[in-house]
């Protein structure tokens, strides 16, 4: 099993859009749900979005559900997080995680493998 690898973070202005990518392997993700979490300075890691291994079911943090979209491309074993209308409060390190089962959840304990994170900074 290998840890997922996030990419796509950067510095943007409020109102901009950004798309994060999470590279996985079939061994770690084919039969597993996937999730995105984030951690701002001085705060605990927070659930953002999750998707089932088939891609037919998704979950979102209420504050991002109308702005963020999680998707999965089985052909490339890649999970994406499209973030629109970014706000300064979205500033955090974003982590991609592999769920222990085929369904993602809002709980950190339900994920077995974590990436090292990618920094997203939104300026006002």
Any overview of this molecule?
This protein has 124 residues and is mainly β. It is 3% helix and 47% strand. The chain contains one helix and eleven strands, in the order βββαββββββββ. The chain has one helix spanning 26-29; strands at 5-7, 10-13, 18-23, 34-39, 46-51, 58-60, 68-73, 78-83, 92-99, 111-114, 118-123. Strands 2, 4, 5, 6, 9, 10 and 11 form a seven-stranded mixed beta sheet that branches. Strand 4 and strand 5 (46-51) form a beta hairpin. The longest helix is centred in the first third of the chain and has 4 residues, at 26-29. The radius of gyration is 13 Å and the shape is globular. The mean pLDDT is 92.
How many alpha or pi helices? 1
The residue ranges in which pLDDT falls below 50 over 5 or more consecutive positions are: none
- The gross shape turns out to be globular
Class of secondary structure makeup: mainly beta
Average of per-residue pLDDT values: 92
Helix content percent band: under 10%
Q: Over the alpha carbons, how many angstroms does the gyration radius reach?
A: 13 Å
The portion of residues forming beta strands comes to: over 45%
- End-to-end Cα distance, whole Å, is 40 Å
DSSP, total strands: 11
Element-level helix/strand string: EEEHEEEEEEEE
Sheet of most strands? 7 strands, mixed
Give a summary of the structure in a few sentences:
This protein has 124 residues and is mainly β.
Features:
124 residues, mainly beta, seven-stranded mixed β-sheet
What's the topology here?
Layout lengths: L4 E3 L2 E4 L4 E6 L2 H4 L4 E6 L6 E6 L6 E3 L7 E6 L4 E6 L8 E8 L11 E4 L3 E6 L1
């Amino acid at each position: 099993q290998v840890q997922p690898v996030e990419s796509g973070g950067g510095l943007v202005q409020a109102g901009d859009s950004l798309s994060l990518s999470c590279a996985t392997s079939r061994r770690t993700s084919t039969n597993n749900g996937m999730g995105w979490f984030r951690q701002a300075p001085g705060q605990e890691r927070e659930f953002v979005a999750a998707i089932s291994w088939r891609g037919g079911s998704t979950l979102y943090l209420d504050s991002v559900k109308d702005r963020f979209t999680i998707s999965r491309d089985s052909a490339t074993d890649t999970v994406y997080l499209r973030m629109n209308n970014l706000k300064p409060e979205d500033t955090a390190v974003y982590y991609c995680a592999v769920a222990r089962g085929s369904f993602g959840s809002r709980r950190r304990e339900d994920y077995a493998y974590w990436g090292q994170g990618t920094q997203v900074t939104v300026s006002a």
